[in-house]
Amino acid sequence: MKKNYTTMGILSIVVMVSFYALFTYIKSGKDQLNKNETESMFVEEDEGEAIELKNKQIVVDVKGAVKRPNIYRLEEGSIVEDAITIAGGTTSEADLIKINRAEKLSDNQEVIIPIKGQEESEPFTSNSSDSNGKININTANETELDSLPGIGPSKAVEIIKYREKNGKFKSVEEIKNIKGIGEASFEKLKDSIKV
């Protein structure tokens, strides 16, 4: 009789442990299924964004004191440092003090990494002015902007900040959106600038 109670007790414990294990297994399977559905939903959205971002590229011509000067495609929003990296880094004769490695690049920009001892007046982006002397307000650096009539150092900085925040100027008239550049200032500037 004692043997029957012992056997029934052990059998009861085995049945309870089996039910608990089965319940836990089923519950974890449902949780894993829900987790996988959620992850795949986010992966699909992320892949869509990645495809969208991948299509937004710019082309830059990297020259000067870099190991592999060439024309490169970079993600929109890339900076000069990204262009230097993709070009294999700088050579030992690069003069990095003369450039802003954090400057945002624009499409079709030419980036020239200066060589130590090069003339101070040589800009690292050579597409800022044309043969008529007009300065491209989308690519000009602070020094070039400061050289414009009626534009001092503080307005030059404001133009660059505006450009970094809002992207390229669509027209020369858009420069009037800069604080301190009104119609009178624009009249002095309009023949000296381009986009």
UniProtKB/TrEMBL annotation:
A Gene Ontology cellular-component term: type II protein secretion system complex
UniProt keyword annotations, A-Z: Membrane, Transmembrane, Transmembrane helix
Molecular function via GO: DNA binding
One GO term (biological process): DNA repair
SUPFAM superfamilies: RuvA domain 2-like
Pfam families: HHH_3, SLBB
Ranges annotated as spanning the membrane: 6-26
Keyword Flavoprotein in annotation: no
Domain Helix-hairpin-helix DNA-binding motif class, chain residue ranges per copy: 143-162, 173-192
Taxonomy, superkingdom: Bacteria
Coiled coil start-end: none
Keyword Membrane: yes
Protein name (Swiss-Prot/TrEMBL): ComE operon protein 1
